[in-house]
Amino acid sequence: MNHVIIGTAGHIDHGKTSLIKALTNIDTDRLKEEKLRGISIDLGFAYFDLPSGRRAGIVDVPGHEKFVKKMIAGAGGIDIVIMVIAADEGVMPQTIEHLNILSFLEIKKGIIAVTKTDLVDQEWMELVIEDIKEYVKGTFLENAPIIPVSSITRQGLDELVKTIDELTQEVQPKDTTSPFYLPIDRVFTLTGFGTIVTGTLLVGRIRKDDLCEILPRGLTARIRNIQVHGKDVMVAEAGQRTAVNLTGVKTEEIFRGDVLSKPGYLKPAKIVDARLKLLKEAKNPIKHMDPIRISIGAKEVLGRVRLLDSKSIKPGREGLVQLLLEEPVAVLYKDKYVARSYSPVTTIGGGEVLNPNPDGKKPLSNKKVIEDLQIRATCPLKDVLEHVIKLKSRNFPDTSKVIEGFGMTAKCRQNIELLKEEGKVIEIPLAQREIVVHKEYYKQVVDSMLNILREYHGKNPLERGMVQEELRERLGLPFYVFDYFVSKLVENKEIKVDGHIVSLQDFRIVFNEEQKRIKQIIKKEFLEGGFKPPKVEDVLNNNNIDGKQGAKVFKALIQLGELVKITEDVVFHKRCYEKGKKVLISYLKYNKTITLAEFRDLLRTSRKFALPLLEHFDEIKLTKRIEDKRMLYKSGSSPF
Predict the structure, then answer these.
(1) Which pLDDT tens digit goes with each residue over 102-119?
(2) 618 belongs to a structural domain
(3) Rounded Cα distance, 272 and 138, in Å
(4) Which of the four pLDDT bands, split at 50, 70 and 90, describes residue 70?
(5) How far apart are CA 234 and CA 542, in angstroms?
(6) Which of 14, 60, 129, 588 is 20 to 30 Å from 23 by CA-CA measure?
(7) Are residues 164 and 211 in the same domain?
(8) Residue 69 dihedral angles phi and psi, to the nearest 5°
């Protein structure tokens, strides 16, 4: 079911609370002082059942100018507003201020209820309605139904209920799949239960026995019980007025304006990137570092404004800003806020959050900063996510890091899947993680890998390739990401891997004429040396070969497998090595075991060469040593 919250708005003493009581039979003025003074000074709550069977929650806000902060706290979660205007007074200052506030909070649907019709005649009523139409022109209430009503005679109440019911059918479904997010607008203690908090659940679901976090304080509690419209429930959903009984936290530790959410889901911040628009009626422009009051969710916090794209914001204009707040707030992308002047306190504008957790203060008039925030402010969600992935790709973020602070988990994941399908984003699959990078960064890494290898081959034409770890360090990639890129490039036949060496797919060692001559000399000397191979230095010196050039050819022959390196000092020609292995296997098939001395005599060599060769065969598990003898190593068995 799509749950609906209806809110009142309007000037003091225009009959908001009386109208709610006439509709619901619930008096939302619960405080003794409210009864004595005859005005609402705090938020009131009620509910009623519509003809369609849908139950609507109602938030009744105070209309006095001193309590605008409380009005904003209650208005944030409403779907439909009933703008209450008394027929005997018409549009008044708080009517206009409340309308401005609702516009900045981007309330989309509303009804204008002209109350106290029993106090005026028809001619006056028509004049008031014309005046109202003029005032709401150009606002979200411009085409709203205007319904004359009386809480005394009950005139127009049936039509009002019918209109509310019709409008509720147009309210968009709430996001119940994302982690829960509930701005707290009331905190109290109930005997026998303990700490109770209330608010409109804006996102997600909360369940009895869930763990929750109270932000920005970082307190953890457990949900002992949940009530919706005065009834115990196991689950509350987005769009419902909700009372939550908490255990593990004291009432005096929680304040109006705090947020109840899933542990670890939100990060409180004292710096928030935002868009700010001033009312045309604002008396003064906003200048850099001006003090300001920000009302967001159910919280009001003092702060200053850093102007990022201009030197001032004039009345009726907007700009990109950083809000430097005196207290941290836990907010989400696109959360709406109301801006009020520091002194005297009046509503001057409002806007929306563009980045709830920026990395500190941003440079002023910076092209990249402005471009980033303009994308966040004006582009569809999919484009914003692509932009964020592009910014974060260098850190190889998983999906949860990309969508952090967006609050639209399911929608974000759907859009990231679309970006993958379109080839704009590449997923790097890892166990228990979904790393995503932008295609441009992916291509940049691939190009860097190929260019580094190309450069390496150019400088080292006689080397088989580059050591993988050296390549990884040059690229600055984590192990898990590097392995992925290597496997993809091997799969695409752009590179090849041989053990710990990586090279371009089409790279081959090519000797020039002089190197070919040196190669033949070295191979001949080592072949003739048999199982008593020479030292490479002696080969080079005896044949007047340049040491540096000869060393390169020697290393290339080892990489090509034409020489087999056993130790730093012992190297055999490939034919000799294979012959030694064959002789050893044949001997052990008939004799079962062999000693070092027997192997030495078998090869007609010395202990100096026979021992390292035997130890090499142990290492590659051709043989295994038992005391002073060797035997063939059988696959799958232990050597001991």
Answers:
(1) 888 888 899 999 999 999
(2) yes
(3) 30
(4) low
(5) 91
(6) 129
(7) no
(8) -55, -40
Total domains in the chain come to: 5
Q: Residue 28 — pLDDT band, cuts 50, 70, 90? A: low
Tokens of residue 219, six digits: 């307190």
Question: Rounded CA gap, 455 and 441, in Å?
Answer: 21
Structural domain contains residue 90: yes
Is the Cβ–Cβ distance between 509 and 461 less than 8 Å? yes
Q: Are residues 385 and 517 in the same domain?
A: no
Helices 574-591 and 607-619: crossing angle, nearest 10°?
80
- Does residue 640 carry a pLDDT above 70? no
> DSSP label at 253?
G
Name the nearest CA neighbour of 242 among 208, 273, 280, 265.
208
Domain containing 103 — which CATH number? 3.40.50.300
pLDDT at 455: 95
Sign of the Cα pseudo-torsion (87, 88, 89, 94, in order):
negative
Tell me what pLDDT residue 38 has.
Answer: 42
**Structure-block tokens of residue 456:** 């390496």
Structure tokens at 403: 């969508």
Number of H helices, E strands in the chain: 19, 34
- Predicted local confidence at residue 35, as pLDDT: 39
| Per-residue pLDDT band at 71 (split at 50, 70, 90) | low
Task: State yes or no: cis peptide before 344, omega within 30 of 0.
Answer: yes
DSSP class of 358: -
- Tell me the one-letter amino acid at 14: H
Q: Number of C-alpha atoms within 13 angstroms, CB side, residue 478?
A: 10
- Cα-Cα-Cα-Cα torsion 191, 195, 201, 206, nearest 10 degrees, comes to -100
Which residue range(s) make up the domain with 400?
A: 372-428
Give the separation between CA 218 and CA 214, rounded to whole angstroms. Answer: 6
Q: How far apart, in whole angstroms, are the C-alpha atoms of residue 289 and residue 543?
A: 80
The mean pLDDT of 427-443, rounded to a whole number, is 89
Query: What share of the chain in percent tops pLDDT 90?
Result: 63
CATH number at residue 624: 1.10.10.10
Q: Do 332 and 252 reside in the same domain of the chain?
A: no
**Does any domain span residue 595?**
yes
135-170 residue pLDDT tens: 999 999 999 999 999 999 999 999 999 999 999 988
Q: To the nearest whole number, what is the mean pLDDT of the chain?
A: 89
Instruction: Write the pLDDT tens digit of every residue in 501-547.
Output: 999 999 988 888 888 899 899 999 999 999 999 999 999 998 988 88
| Neighbouring C-beta atoms of residue 440, cutoff 10 Å | 11
Structure tokens at 384: 């914003």
Residues β-bridged to residue 495 = 504
- Any idea which residue has 């009312």 for tokens? 279
Range list of H helices, 1-92: 16-24, 32-37, 68-75
pLDDT digits (tens, 9 = 90+) for 583-625: 999 999 989 999 999 999 999 999 999 999 999 999 999 999 9
Which helix H or strand E contains 233, and what residues bound it? Answer: strand 231-233
Same domain, 379 and 421: yes
Q: Is residue 336 part of a domain?
A: yes
Residues 87 and 114 grouped into a single domain: yes
User: Mind listing the pLDDT tens digit for each residue in 447-471?
Assistant: 999 999 999 999 888 888 999 999 9
Q: Which residues contact 482 (CB under 8 A, 6 or more apart)?
A: 468, 471, 472, 475
Cα separation, 598 vs 515, whole angstroms? 39
Cβ burial of 555 (10 Å; 0-12, 13-18, 19+) is: middle
- pTM of this structure: 0.80
